[in-house]
Amino acid sequence: MASLVDDINACSYLYPLELPSKKFVFKWVESRKPERYSSAAPLSPDARLRIVSERVDLIDNLIISVLIGPPNSQFLKSKDKSKWSAKDVADSVLSDKSALRITSTQRMAESSVLDTHSSEIDGEPYWYYEYLVRKSPTKTAQESNIYRHYITSTAERDGYLYSLNASTLSNKWDVMGPFLEKTVASFRLLPPTENYVPPYKDPWRFW
């Protein structure tokens, strides 16, 4: 595993480099270098949820991305995050995730949540959830029984949700899933340094 530290968004995670037992090497490409929330690519028309960094392995159909967005008050009604359930956090993030111009209910209907749980790390709650996206994930995989399998860890800071999202095709989950689970379990919000740019800073900036 290698470590990625993002000073701009004050977070870190580990990601797999190789599987020595299988003589397998991951072919990661950094498709989005870490950037401030205000300039990051939006995932939905309302621009609430955005990808602030991403790395992909196109050969093996793997994606690891860091997403930031405000909580959706439709699901997270309390201001006290200690009262949030992992399922409600999952619904909040997934409702803002689709890039299509559809309602949040339709966005959630595209996804099937398999498992949710929460854990406390360094006094902060982290919510974990696993889900499938029913849409055909690639042009080469048109079969309706092949989905994208996601696992996500989310934490809250400064009124925003920070999520690490890792996914692969469902038919590769048995092999790749355990390594993506380790990646998601390693996600941490770090003490901010002078390089940290909070999401609420300069919301009008797009560069």
Automatic annotation (TrEMBL):
It comes from Ilex paraguariensis (yerba mate). Pfam families: PsbP. This is PsbP C-terminal domain-containing protein. InterPro entries: Mog1/PsbP_a/b/a-sand, PsbP_C. It comes from the Eukaryota. Residues 65-188 form the PsbP C-terminal domain. PANTHER family: PSBP DOMAIN-CONTAINING PROTEIN 5, CHLOROPLASTIC, PTHR31407.
